[in-house]
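Question: I have long wanted to understand how a fold can be written as tokens. Here is the record:
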Amino acid sequence: MTGLALDVAGNSASASISYNVGPWTIVGFDKPVDMGSMNSQKGGAPVPLKFEVFVGSVELTTLDAIASIEQQRFSCDTSAPMGTPTAIPAAPGFTLRYDAGAGQFVGKWDSPKLPGTCWLVNLRTADGSSISAAFKLK
């Protein structure tokens, strides 16, 4: 970026600066969700969704940092998506807030009462960064 300044006497000066804009960093989902494998969950039971969002080293703490949290059913055998994603905040029983004491966002997803099905929970931030966790309901 280059800026130019001009004063009333006609003197001018310019300065340039370079910067990189990187993606936001999402830390989580934290325990009890296992990000490295399929999570086994009782259908209809609440699942705590705990995470942090950073821009560089600055932690974001307001809900406008979160663009969406969605659930989507997928095939347990082939992992192929089934149907369309549904916004979790529209689902009954969903809450999301920033817990200043814990230093993280805390949500509660009420998993569908559909034993034997698989679901993906996807969190997307306002900059487009995302994380997902997979669940098989029992």
The radius of gyration is 21 Å. The chain has one domain: 23-137. Residues 23-137 form a domain with the Immunoglobulin-like fold (CATH 2.60.40.10).
